[in-house]
Structure formats: structure tokens, C-alpha cells
Amino acid sequence: MEKNNWYRTDLLDETEEFINHRTKEQREKLHDASGIKVLEEDRQRVKITRVDVNSNGAEEIGKKQGTYYTLTIPTLTTDDEDGFKQLGKVLAEELTTLHPYIKGNTDNKVLIIGLGNKTITPDAVGPLTIDELQNSVKPIQERCIIYAPGVTGQTGYETSSFIKALAEQIKPALVIVIDALATRASNRLCKTIQMTDTGIHPGSGVGNMRLEISKETIGCPVTAIGLPTVVDGPVLIADAVDTLFKSIAAKIHEKNSPSSALSVTPWRPSDTSNMSLDVLKPIFGEWSTWPKEERLQLFEESLVGHDRLFVTPKNIDEWVHNYAYLISDTLTEWIEST
């Protein structure tokens, strides 16, 4: 089968090159061979991944040269106030790490842009954050210019053209762009924040790529803060089938296990990460042993001719409003502290 990359994702740590180098030893080799340096740490419940990509690494993985942060709380829920506070605290700390030159200079203006379509809930995190900032305290309004330009389909103009025109007049020290992203893993929906100093391609995650917003196109540093709110439909199917196959295979492998026989609670597989799926071939056929990527391609090809389907959580309105509060509060505190 001809292999195509069907995954749509805006998250750097979901690229194929990154996924194929998960262990510390593999990532050291990745750095030496491809110029991609990965640092990971935990701060309370927040899992932080920092990826530094040089020019060689950019060519290797198809992402721009620069620094990428991914902040994740896998167990986050919409009513998890403590989790949102921890995410906001880490986001502010890494903003300071990424832009130390902003601190201590009140003459430095910051242009904050909320990208997205306010009338489409999964895409509304940018405009809603701008709404929150406009109702914020006075110091951030003195230091920052806040703007939600809408989307090209509403205005008829490229969003990057609006931002470039503003930047030429204002001459900010930094542009911060807030937008919704696409992920390739359903379990990361609304539980991850990505921040990068490389800018952003609006709409790229859903196949509607507009002109780039970056230092190269705007003329000043651009940091993008993104929240994954949608996943491609076939990816969701592939995730479900992969989980199902691994669970069935695990049960077959462990059916004679003493621990399984003595269990008085509902059975759960102990580990499916390196589970052989060959035992499924007599039941489901050859395709059950294919790599997940090839099964995904099969689902995609089966849906040729149908409208592309993107999936978002049922309570996406709660998620988006929570993140609008989080990002606006974090930016306000960060600006006040600089």
C-alpha cells in the first residue's frame, strides 16, 4: 500500500519523527543526527516537553526552526480548577523564559491577536480570549494592543495582512497569536497547550492553510499559543480500532495468567504497548496486524468522496471558555509582572 501521511496535527510532538524517538537514547540520537533537542520535565501535574529545532531538524520533520513547548495535563477536566491554575502558572513561566527581553521595559508594546471564528465554538478560543482581555485591568491595556481580526472567510482579506499592517504602525516588541489547533490523538483534545516562537499557519491543521504569521512575514517576533480542539474523524476511528485490537490481543495473551484468573474486578490489560497482534489474524484477518498508520489510510481511502469530518468534545463550549479565561489571566499577570 502506498504510504501517505493522513494525520492532521498542529502539535510538533505528534510528528512522525518525534513519535518514532520516544526513549531518552533515541532522542539523543535524534539530536545528534537531525538537530532536534528534546527536554521533558514534570511540574506538579503539568507534563512539559520542550523541543528545540535547528535548521537541520526543520528540514527533517517539516516544522520551522525554533522552540516549541507542549504543556499537558492528561487527567484535566472542565471543572478542574487546580489543573487550570497549574497550566497557567507554567505557561507564564515559559513565556518569561522565551521572551526575557520583555521584562523590565515598560516601553515594549505587545500586540495580542485572537485568531479564529467566534461563531464556530471549537475555533473561538482566540476571539473569546480577546473579549476577556478587553474586560481586563488597565495595565495590560496600556502595554498591549488587543485585536481579533476574524477569519478570511468573513473579511475577505488575509489575516496576516491585517496583522502586518498593525505591526508596521505599532512596532511591537512581540506579537502573541492565540488560535485553535488540530491534534492526531483524541485523548489530547483540550488537555494540551502548545507555545512556539516560530509563528503559525492559520487553518493548517484542518487543511485550510492561510498565509503564515511569523517574524519573517510580520517583521517582529511572533509567539503562537494554541489549544487542540478538533481531531480528524478517521483518526478517531483508528484510535478506537487500535485500542480494541490491543485489548483483545492482551486478553488472549493473558487468558492463562494466574493474576487474570484470580481477579475479582473487571479485567484490564496490564500492558498493551508492545503487544503482538498476530493472534488476531485468524479472527480479523491480515489487516488487524497492520501498523496503525496503514489502517488509518484504509479508513481515509474508504471515505473518499465524503465530506471531511472533524470531531470535537461534546462540552467544547466549556473547554473553550475555560481556556479563554486561563490564557487571558495568564497574559494579564505576565504583562503586569514585566
Automatic annotation (TrEMBL):
Full protein name: Germination protease
Keyword Hydrolase among record annotations: yes
Residue numbers covered by the propeptide annotation in the UniProt entry: 1-10
Family per record: Belongs to the peptidase A25 family.
One GO MF term: hydrolase activity
Keywords: Hydrolase, Protease, Zymogen
Species name: Viridibacillus soli
Post-translational modification, as annotated: Autoproteolytically processed. The inactive tetrameric zymogen termed p46 autoprocesses to a smaller form termed p41, which is active only during spore germination.
Assembly mode: Homotetramer.
Described function: Initiates the rapid degradation of small, acid-soluble proteins during spore germination.
Top-tier EC class: hydrolase
Catalytic activity: Endopeptidase action with P4 Glu or Asp, P1 preferably Glu > Asp, P1' hydrophobic and P2' Ala
EC code: 3.4.24.78
Classification via Gene3D superfamilies: HybD-like
